[in-house]
Amino acid sequence: MSKTIKLNHITKIEGHASLNLSIDKGKVKKCELSAVEGSRYFEGLLKGRRIDEASELTSRICGICSCAHTIAAIQAVENALYIKPSKQTIVLRELLTLGERIRSHATHLYFMVLPDYLGYESALSMLPKYKKEITIALKMMKIGNQIIKTVGGRDLHPVTATIGGFHNLPSQEELDELRKNLEEIKKHAVSTAKLFSGLDYPYINRKTEFFSLTSWRKFAMLYGNLKSLNKEYLKKDYQRYIKEYHTPYSSANFVVKDEKTYYVGALARINNNHKKLSKDSKKLLDESGMKLPNNNPFSNNIAQAIELVHSVDHAIEICSKLKIKNEKIKKYRVKAGHGVAAIEVPRGILWHEYKFNKKGEITYANIITPTAQNLRSMEEDIKLLLTSIINSPKKKIVSEIEKLIRAYDPCFSCSAHFLEVNWE
Amino acid sequence: MKTTKLKIGFYGITGCAGCQLSFIFNEDELLSLIDLIDLRAFPFIKEFNLEEKFDYVFIEGLVANKNDLKTLKKLREKADKLVALGACAHTGCVPAYRNFTLKENYKHLLYMKRTEIQDVKPTPVDTHVNVDYTIPGCPPDKNEIMNFIKDIVKGKEPKINNNPVCVECRRNNNVCLLDVGKPCLGPITRGGCNSVCTNGKFECWGCRGLTDDADIKLLVKLLKEKGFSEKIIKQRMRSFVGLKLPNLEKIMNE
To answer: What is the ipTM for the molecules in this complex?
Structure first.
């Protein structure tokens, strides 16, 4: 018996994606996950623009992680020109990144993931019964947004961060206010970790490489080498071990490392760097019963919830310790250069690479997003998941595959989908 | 007597999801806002989406491929009123800047080789269908979206600000960034953002589109006098609103 499953428009993810499956005699013959949204060709339209414009333009790649693109673009240029940002600048960029992570994880966990496990079509239809949970999510999203607005000047597409510093700095009072609000939501982050540790997830186990930044000092975010298993890699050599290729069925590029699939995101970070988590998040990780290293992609939901607690802790620490100095933006001389940045953003490693001429005009840009890196893994995991549910009713197969895709928190960059399932 | 709520849909075509998030990020008011309306479709956060007649459809994104065009035309048919939500839908935003760049810029990109889904010229929504309302901005201000919805629920005609950003910027006592040598587009750009960028000492790039009586000539003259090259003036002005400035080349040469 052969059958075809076509998910034309997958809902509750960021981006336009579709899935094409065909199964013959109990075996998966085809599994193609594709981004079907229009290409925006950011790397091409950056050519000829000045290096100090890259952060403003590339922040438009993504709404939910615009701070990530802003910071990656700035860091790549700074690396090219050997500009060393001040300690305060680095800490404020970390705070911006944490705010974005809190907002992104809270949105993903409660609006995209939770309805699937409680048997609802959306967070909105959960409302009468689960108003408390949705209110908690909105409170955490609000504080995430408040951090970004305070540090970045605007809650989406931040405006203050630039090469060598910040156009405008938050005041000490604003940081105090953030600290108070963060302390207020800490209990919500903890209850989120408990809630998501207790959900009943499907189980698959495919050996893969978990790839993330790593640092001996802290839970790596903006600095450090790349780590997979016990091997470390340098950022600037990335084109040696990471390859992009395209397929005729998708508008996103596929990415492999050393010719194999790999995994980026909260689960990779927890697998590789769990020793550097904050005290409370480590305790919650222990209590979650999640075995490490963990190969089940569904555990990414737990990993995100644990990271939520860690991010709140880390942000509280920054807001309590940082004494704002009125620093000027570092001056720099424009010359020809080539720089790479890799940072940990909500969904995994984000790469920005630029080459530019002596006038500071970009001649080459390459951007690799976390979702592109995870696409091949998602396909492999879907195939594996299918083997265990291949004889289940159609509805069950579709809902399990969707749960898996959502566990990856993919961002196909924007969304427009209505679920259409075609069986033959 | 039972009153019927407005049937509303939120959709995205090619974009970044930021405009839809701006609506969701009305954190404290989101739930009461949703209570006011019959939110029938919102595929970004809903699995079941009732694809029938809508009183209002809010659409985020620009038209970048044939799929977008198909979706847009279908939604136009189903919507009594179509609202262009955010800069991509309104002006084409940054992705439409591609119209002003060289074809050879894109030669090396892997995804150019793809043929299955065909690209179309990146264009805003009003290039293809009639638009009833626009909520400008990249991102649109979340309060503006909220107020828009409250207005239409009350049957009140929603208003869009038509003052330049400079009005709010002055009210916020900011230093004029043109005076300190930055290529600020505030004088020709529609306000309503509370001058959020210039408050952060970052010059306006024009994301909210042009005011009805924008004096492009005057700003070009001013920027030239300040020493900005024609190339930079054109690049900046075209970053967010290029397609709405068809005469820029002519103005530059005057």
So the answer is: 0.95
